[in-house]
Amino acid sequence: MLSSSDFASASWELVVHIDHPDVEEQKDVTLRVSGDLHVGGVMLKLVEQINISQDWSDFALWWEQKNCWLLKTHWTLDKYGVQADAKLLFTPQHKTLRLRLPNTKTVRLRVSFSAVVFKAVSDICKTLNIRRSEELSLLKPSGDYFKKKKKKDKNSKEPIIEDILNLESSPTISGPPVSPGLYSKTMTPTYDPISGTPASSTMTWFSDSPLTEQNCSILAFSQPPQSPEALADMYQPRSLVDKAKLNAGWLDSSRSLMEQGIQEDEQVLLRFKYYTFFDLNPKYDAVRINQLYEQARWAILLEEIDCTEEEMLIFAALQYHISKLSLSADIQDFTNESEVDEVEAALSNLEVTLEGGKADNTLEDITDIPKLADYLRLFRPKKLILKTFKQYWFVFKDTSIAYFKNKELEQGEPIEKLNLRGCEVVPDVNVAGRKFGIKLLIPVADGMNEVYLRCDHENQYARWMAACILASKGKTMADSSYQPEVLNILSFLRMKNRNSASQVASSLKSMDMNPECFVSPRCAKKHKSKQLAARILEAHQNVAQMPLVEAKLRFIQAWQSLPEFGLTYYLVRFKGSKKDDILGVSYNRLIRIDAATGIPITTWRFTNMKQWNVNWEIRQVAIEFDQNVSIAFTCLSADCKIVHEYIGGYIFLSTRSKDQNETLDEDLFHKLTGGQD
């Protein structure tokens, strides 16, 4: 009797539900276990009792009440705290997930539901051949996202079934990269840099991946434009509060899909979450560039980001051009030619290096601090005063602008000196109207000072605008990115130039487009179809000679040049405030925005940040900056962990450099985004 009672007290019955298609009705299995039995032993007993011969290595135990995986197989049941009342599920760790990509294509593939989302996204990106997976994440769409579409889905479910690219046969399994060459610096080009087609010499890589050449093309080429009716049926955010709702569904990168309530075969969105696109290279990034272009395109069409009508027409012209090239069957294979060019370029670079390079102005660059000096016009908005610009002599040096009554007084005291570090720089341009303006929002103790500068011509505007953009980031014109920034601004302005009517008239006769497909529904309503087509074709003349990949990159650059680019919005309540505000999170700053007017109130730069943390009890994010500035806010439109992860994620991405190996410090990411320390 004694030994029997001892046995009874030491062991107990544990019921485990089996999630397996061959086990009838997913039956429950009852095991007799003791608290000192390790999880691996429980799984071994289960497999023996199920008695089906197969590979069980992907199966693990999921604890329903505690919402966690029991992945540490050497831990005992006592250590995990598992008792007789525990509801355990024996289920595969890799399950089917439907991923809606930025190009609206849905991909079905097997994803780890037990790995943290950061790791799961990394594995997904390896499968889809997208480098820099740290820039992407998974977004669970709000009810509004598919709201308008559901009416159509009831009538016809066919298109949705057809639109799914099935990659289920190849699960994304954690471990080494699919191909060791994929992430190495000496890798051979995977794509043709001009047309974006997979390079024939590297198609052997795809044999290791579910991405066949055909599937790769589906992901690397732009989809045909949606009809205006389909576009009108899609969800469009109407206000900053609506935009804030879109960002509430980002999944927590430090937890698994299963822990966040994602179901098998559920649809989630794969999106670029962080707007810092590192090392975009057409030779390796055809899928990445195309998906980035598609995300930018939909942001413009659905007005998730604001742009002027002039800019909308440039985006429309580029879309029209890209869709024409994507549909063309006459894309040439430049692979061999580009390989020769690459070797020649490498040899010429080596030659320059061995000869010492061009040293004529190296010393000058080191000793001289570049400056700009010119006559510009200035306006400071005040209540009840008309917008009148007054001419002054401006001098731009380091990160500051000083202005004087005239050139002769430059050596004296300026009327005012504006420090642009940390300011907001907004273009105020209308090329057709010859208006080249720069709007500066300069942070001061009680908010933002608004200053308008007006340039005379596009070359002057490009130089001053580039200098302002760099100064806002704390960089001077001595920085290597200054000249490329000037050229980028000039190329964008030239795309806006109006062309001769005769060329457009002849193009209109052979027109093969539905112009409403390339602009937002609101813009389409303002113009007659023929008028809109004429204006798109007029803008198209400036980009008609561009190769496919260059046109996509130019579209991405134009998107990046918009004032609102890279801002992710959240509805928050600041400590001590009686009303709700919008918080804009960008790659280098936080902006407090008036929810009613959309006007920025204050900007805080990450470079001035000393520390940030979360009070989990009251769900409040607190941040300390230099000069004893501290802020605290609670998030109303999303969990505070999402905003905290955004800030930490951007700081993590700023640590990347081209010199380091492309393997990521995942521990550092979780340390910066976890919010526990």
TrEMBL record:
Record key words, sorted: Cell adhesion, Cell junction, Cell projection
UniProt-listed GO biological process terms: cell adhesion
CDD domains xrefs: FERM_B-lobe, FERM_C_fermitin, FERM_F0_KIND1, PH_fermitin
Domain of life of the native organism: Eukaryota
Alphabetized Gene3D superfamilies for the sequence: Phosphatidylinositol 3-kinase Catalytic Subunit, Chain A, domain 1, Pleckstrin-homology domain (PH domain)/Phosphotyrosine-binding domain (PTB)
Protein name: Fermitin family-like protein 1
Organism, as annotated: Daubentonia madagascariensis (Aye-aye)
Main location: other
Residues of the PH domain: 377-473
Protein localization: Cell junction; Cell projection
SUPFAM superfamilies linked: PH domain-like, Second domain of FERM
Family: Belongs to the kindlin family.
Oxidoreductase recorded as keyword: no
